[in-house]
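Usage

Read records sequentially. Each one opens with the input sequence:
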Amino acid sequence: MVNSVSDIPDGALEKDRILAAIDIGTNSIHMVVVRIIPSLPAFTIVDREKDTVRLGDRDPETGNLKPEIMQKAIATLRRCQEVAKSLNVEQIIAVATSAVREAPNGRDFLKQIEAEIGLRVDLISGQEEARRIYLGVLSGMEFHNQPHSIIDIGGGSTELILGDSHEPRSLSSTKIGAVRLTAEFVSTDPISNAEFLSLQAYVRGMLERSVEELREHLKPGESPRLVGTAGTIETIATIVAREKLGMVPTPLNGYQFSLKDLRDLVLRLRKMNYAERAAIPGMSDRRSEIIVAGAIILQEAMTLLGRDAIAICERSLREGVIVDWMLTHGLIEDRLRYQSSVHQRSVMKTAQKYQVKLEYSQRVAEFALSLFDQTQGTLHNWGFHERELLWAAAILHNCGHHVSHSAHHKHSYYLIRNSELLGYTETEIDIIANFARYHRKSAPKKKHDNYRNLPTKEHRQMVSQLSALLRLAVSLDRRQIGAIKRVQCEYRPGIREICFRLFPSQPDDDCALELWSLDYKKSSFEVEFGVKLAVKLESSAIPIG
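and closes with the structure output:
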């Protein structure tokens, strides 16, 4: 799993490592501190720091970074160093992007940083920035080898990326950003109609080449999902979510809003002055200065890409810097390996943490997936994504024993709900936790807060139906000794009955406890799927068919 590398001491590969990544951007300076778990390999977020420095507010005549802003940036970086030191960070990796890249005195500024506080900052190109954004998004979102377009709107540039879990197919960086465009195009407040139309036309013209390049790398019939990152898009998502849901999902990762939602918001924002925009819940004072330009970039990009919805990923450049470091230090063999198994590694790590009996839980998972597959298309139409959530719940359903045997299903819910399962959204973690909560005792009820508070009716139906499958999977290994080797489902639609043919591992085992448990727990399955369940124990240990 892990390659040995000369610069990592013996034994250090298995030890958790704390690292910090700093992104010196056009609008803000961000730092993320992570704990790297080499045995997965993956990382969890320990801390985040941010300061809106606005390096992009450069001298209009020379294009140089302003001395007072450079000093403010250095003060922010010094505070970041102090935070990193307090968290025992072994290394800080810092990168600078658009504003520093384009300023005539940008490299002098980086030298000044190193001279004053001893921090080395790497200046990266627009394409390298896009590549690391891609790695960051891969660390926080499952692509399932399907094409995804990624847009990152910064203060000075906008990155467009196309990838599918493998090497990125297309990486572009365009010199349009919320700070840059506000400075160059906006002098009225609220923005005048003339300035709005001029800005809109400019953005569209600047994006056309990047969008065309992205499209050239699409295969026939592909329609990539659109993912958005960074402050402008997260702010828009926060505003939309608060107004549509009455709350902001925590985390925001995976939340989606539509192009119509965005257009409606842009229509409102263009009529507001600075003070009115700043008063919108979820809008910071500094963000309100540049949000109109940022929203226009996103609106035009979505229109050109032909996408009517966008999903949020809270990981971006900073996390990509971490992934890149892990790659170069041999902690990840390749990007595909990292992405394709991030869910599985994270679930298994959580199972290990709570001392789950893996041999038993893997048998339960195999039964759950077998029941899922054999009833798919007849009793239910859930797909690959829901199947994966069921697998995770089956592996973790008994983790509550780590707290207590009594009411351990409720403890399992709590432990899963409060674990950071990498790659899963907040809603997905909630679903996995609910599956585990209902593997025994009471079936889901609306009076249960954890069930009632699931986001949609569809989510509640998923929990009701698939937790019923998990209950039966647990019954099939009631003694936790692998008494049942295999189950074969035979559906009889005419009489609305399904028969489970059980093949015991030992020919002389009557599997009495498993049969009793199936009979005891079948009611929720029968209610959810509207069928009668019959069970037959085969006399032969040799599976038929």
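Summary fields computed downstream for this record:
- The first strand starts at residue 17 and ends at 24.
- The chain has three domains: 12-125+318-335, 142-314, 342-537.
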